[in-house]
Amino acid sequence: MLQVNQLHIGYTGAIATAESLQLNPGDLVALVGRNGSGKSTLLQTLRGSLPILSGSVTIDEKEITHWSPQSLATKIAWLNAHFTGVSQLLVLDYVLLGRTPYLGILGNPREEDRQLALHALIRVGADHLKDKLTASLSDGERQLVGLARALAQDTPYIFLDEPTAFLDFYHRKQLFTLLKELAISEQKGILLSTHDLDLVIGFELPLWLVPQDGSIRAHEPMQSREALEALLI
Amino acid sequence: MNQTKSHLILLLSAGILLLVVFLLYLKTGYFHTTWEHVFQALTNPSDEVSSTVVWSFRLPRILMAFLAGAALSVAGMLMQNLFQNTLAGPDVLGITSGSSLLVALWMMTGITALGSTTDLIFLGILGAMGMGAIMLLFALKLRSAVHLLLIGLMLSSFIGAIIAIIQASSGTQDLQQYVFWNFGSLQRVTIQQIPWIAIITSLGVILSLFQVRALNAMVLGEDIAKSLGISIRQVRILSILISGILTGTITAFAGPIAFVGLAIPNVTKLLMKTQNHRVLLWSNILFGALFLGVCDFAIKLLESYIAIPLNALTALLGVPFVSWMILKNRHVTG
Questions:
Q1: What pTM value is reported for the model?
Q2: What is the pLDDT of residue B333?
Q3: What is the mean pLDDT of the segment spanning B187-204?
Q4: Which of these, A89, B69, B262, B329, is most buried using a 10 Å CB contact count?
Q5: A72, A88, A106: residue with CB nearest B274
Q6: What is the Cα–Cα distance from B123 to B291, expressed in whole angstroms?
Q7: Which residues 166-225 of A are in CB contact (within 8 Å) with B?
Q8: Average pLDDT, integer, range B246-250
Q9: Is A148 a domain residue?
Q10: How far apart are CA B105 and CA B126, in angstroms?
Q11: What is the CATH number of the domain that holds B235?
Q12: Residue B8: CB partners within 8 Å, gap ≥ 6?
């Protein structure tokens, strides 16, 4: 379990606080809040990219503060919406990069790593893309192979920062469906930040709310968009 | 599998071409030598003129061409990886200009009036390492790689300005000596120095081999690389350190050789069509060595008609070739 206690986050001064939050393997949780409320800052802090101002973040009761990037990388996989592909990088090689934390000192992937990468592509239904160049993918395909990379990383938790930002409605719905499936079938604790309130409500996702006053808290799935918007002011 | 095969074929071809250039180079020159002379000189160097010409003049020069081409290309690959910018090269960190500054001081002001070539080499390495150290300090402080790139470019200009002042206030003879050093030349290296340069270059390559895992992840940007367990600080330190050692050594012995470190890593990526840095590392070594070997061979063939500085020829041969490659690949996405 990923557990947050009395956490203060921000760059120099605290911009938001979280009294108590939990993320369990098997959960798909939506992190919602207006622009600039601190969603990205929270995600950055939880994945160890930004120092904690005060409070604690633990995974299986161990403080993550002093973990090396390598051991953290075996617990949390991270995906953002900004990846636009890299020249000369094939999809399968891209997914294979998810195995980075497990490679030896020479960085040579074993056959087992290749199989895991291929499996991850099959799991998200994108194995037909494996020999394509990452730069030639559509936005929808890019999110799928990104998710495959996160799966190949074989972590109990996956964080996604606005994964639906560049997708049309059909692909957004498809991605949410897939994430929900993966959370349950692969027992992943998935946390995604999003502005897609309609989908969050439609999929009845449990919430982490980041209101403007900066007091982050967990909330039951909600039924109405108006009520949810009211909580974010 | 298919890609692995085409990689092997390309690398093998480069290796064979390298051998051909090597042998032709040893045979060609003012002084007429036969193949017999060449093999005799290589297997059993003696005091005969033909043996001296091959062993003491031609051999160190072609070996230096190979070493410099390989070292600068690897340094360029590391810099382009670190900054995720295809315009980066060993010169952008100010490493080359660090060497130039100390050499300029030595040649034109007489501040270090010790006066032997050994000092020149030592100063070249010292200058490169000094600038490398300054850049390392910035690398530890700055979050953004673009800012680091900017600082490197500015420091190069800053040092360029100091060198301009030194040049403006020095005598014709000193100035000429510096200008010739600045042209880049592979002729100053002796056969006794080659093993040292080879050892240092190999050290850089071996250190890079242990960096492959990080280099591959860095392709996705620092943020994702970090989430994959890579220590960004460690990558920066090692990449700058290795580039500093490689560039500093080569610059000290052969002067600032432009273009190779920028162009070869890009050509290599286009030819090999991969982001796997184990493949790219070996390719850069072979293609870099081959390119500079061919350049110096051309200089040697044209020597009796026109004296072409190494730095001029690398650009004259390289720019049309690289432009053609980019044009040819413009329809390939990414």
A1: 0.90
A2: 46
A3: 92
A4: B69
A5: A88
A6: 27
A7: none
A8: 90
A9: no
A10: 13
A11: 1.10.3470.10
A12: none
How many domains does chain B fold into?
1
Q: Is residue A174 part of a domain?
A: yes
Beta bridge partners of A215: A17
Rounded Cα distance between A195 and A189, Å, is 20
Amino acid at B126: L
**Judgement on whether residues A133 and A223 belong to the same structural domain of the protein:** no
The domain of B299 spans 2-328
Whether residue B334 and residue A135 make contact (CB cut-off 8 A), yes or no, is yes
Structural domain count of chain A: 2
Return the minimum-mean-pLDDT range out of B23-37, B125-139, B317-331.
B317-331
| Alpha-carbon span B33 to B61, nearest angstrom | 17
Q: Is residue B289 within 8 Å of residue B67, measured between CB atoms?
A: yes
Same domain, A135 and A162: no
- Of A108-112, B177-181, B228-232, least confident by mean pLDDT is B177-181
The answer to whether A97 contacts B220, with C-beta atoms less than 8 Å apart, is yes
| pLDDT recorded at residue B29 | 85
Q: Where are the beta strands (DSSP E) in B23-163?
A: none
* ipTM of this complex prediction, to 2 decimal places: 0.92
Could you tell me if B143 lies within 8 Å of chain A, comparing CB atoms? no
Flag if A136 and B216 touch (Cβ within 8 Å). no
Within this chain, do residues A164 and A70 fall inside the same structural domain, yes or no?
yes
Average pLDDT, chain B: 88
Three-class SS of A31-97: EEECCCCCHHHHHHHHCCCCCCCEEEEEECCEECCCCCHHHHCCCEEEEECCCCCCCCCEHHHHHHH
Q: Residue B115's pLDDT band (boundaries 50, 70, 90)?
A: low
CATH of the domain at A69: 3.40.50.300
| CA distances (Å), origin B138, targets B156, B172, B215 | 14, 37, 20
Q: CA A129, CA A150: separation in Å to the nearest integer?
A: 16
Give residue B229's region: left, alpha or beta (phi > 0; psi -120 to 50). Answer: left
Model pLDDT, residue B334: 43
Q: Summarize pLDDT for A122-151 with one digit per residue, the tens.
A: 999 999 999 999 999 998 899 999 999 999
Q: Where are the alpha helices (DSSP H) in B171-231?
A: 172-183, 194-209, 212-218, 222-227
